Amino acid sequence: MATRITEEETNQVLRTVEMFEAITGSQPDDSQSLEILKEAYNKLGRQTDSLRISRKLAGAYVHLGQLSKAILEYEGILQEYPDDVNARAALTELESKASRLTAPQPSGTTTSAEHSKHRATPAAPTGPSPVLKHPAAVDADVALAEILVAEKVATLETIQSLLQRLPIKRTAALQQGQTLTLVQLMVDDKVAKLDDILVAIVNRIGLPYLPLSVYDVDRDVACLLPRDICFQHCIVPFDLISRSVLIATANPFDTAVREQMRSMVDYNPIWYVSSPGDITQALRRAHGLEIRVKEKH
């Protein structure tokens, strides 16, 4: 049974539905967004749409190789709709496949999944990364820099130069109520196009991209986290869905702040990649900085 919500909450959830239908339409295996979309439909009491998304979510888990999650999703469907023939057939097939995968292997043999894993895992580096020559760069910037060099978005020499300049320029930006990230500095210096950088980040991290500029960011949600942390790390919480808070970040490799968020909010953080410009604009609007600028003029 759907929880009774206010008209304002209903409108916000409808906007969330519109956004995440678009996202999952272009990224059908984005299980994170599908989970949010299913929860939104449940909140609206639209069980037919919730079932439709549950099917897509189960299929996405299968494509991602997450059989246990797919099985749980189909089991959930059958709890609500025990006569669903398609869900039961899919569940039976998955349980059979899972049992084969977990069966003991003959001595000296490996599964095809293990072979695939060994092929896909790169060898560990034998020495320190050359990007780490500049101790002034924070770990999150270094992690992102290494990815962009590996993805051939920028050269090592260029990245090292940017890492040297970034701390000072970031401090100056923060004093003016702005954010500055390695991504934005690369775009400003015409080192690489924003789209190319974002594609490289999304492909490597596996998180979905969200065009925050067209999302109706909830001001109260955007102010859930301390302003200085949001500007320093270029992150912004932009919506609440049930017990989850959706957070946009310009650097998903900032593992320290992602771990910190778990202890700072009473919600489950769900992360999305967005452009630093969109995040900055959302933060400035939420904290009233745009209004103040207009008043000065």
Q: What would you note in describing this structure?
A:
- Helices cover 62% and strands 6% of the residues.
- It is mostly helical and 297 residues long.
- It has three domains: 7-102, Tetratricopeptide repeat domain (Serine Threonine Protein Phosphatase 5, Tetratricopeptide repeat), CATH 1.25.40; 130-205, no CATH class; 212-296, Type II secretion system, protein E, N-terminal domain (GMP Synthetase, Chain A, domain 3).
- The chain has a three-stranded mixed sheet with strand order 1-2-3.
Descriptors:
297 residues; 62% helix; GMP Synthetase, Chain A, domain 3; 3 domains; three-stranded mixed beta sheet; mainly alpha; 15 helices; globular; Serine Threonine Protein Phosphatase 5, Tetratricopeptide repeat; disordered C terminus
Task: Summarize the SSE layout with pairings.
Blueprint: H1 7-26, H2 31-44, H3 47-63, H4 67-80, H5 85-102, H6 112-120, H7 139-150, H8 156-175, H9 182-188, H10 194-205, H11 219-222, H12 227-233, E1 235-241, E2 244-249, H13 255-264, E3 268-273, H14 276-286, H15 289-296
Parallel strand pairs: 2-3
Antiparallel strand pairs: 1-2
| Count of discrete alpha- or pi-helical segments spanning 4 or more residues | 15
**Helical percentage:** 55-70%
**CATH class call of the largest domain:** Mainly Alpha
| Secondary-structure class | mainly alpha
- Round the mean pLDDT to the nearest integer and report it: 82
> Strand fraction band?
5-15%
- Through-space gap between termini: 52 Å
CATH architecture of the largest domain: Alpha Horseshoe
The description of the largest β-sheet is: 3 strands, mixed
CATH superfamily of the largest domain: Tetratricopeptide repeat domain
- Give the strand order, joined by hyphens, for the main sheet: 1-2-3
Shape: globular
Secondary structure: number of strands = 3
Low-confidence stretches: 108-129, 132-137, 291-297
- Helices and strands, in order, run as HHHHHHHHHHHHEEHEHH
Rg, alpha carbons? 22 Å
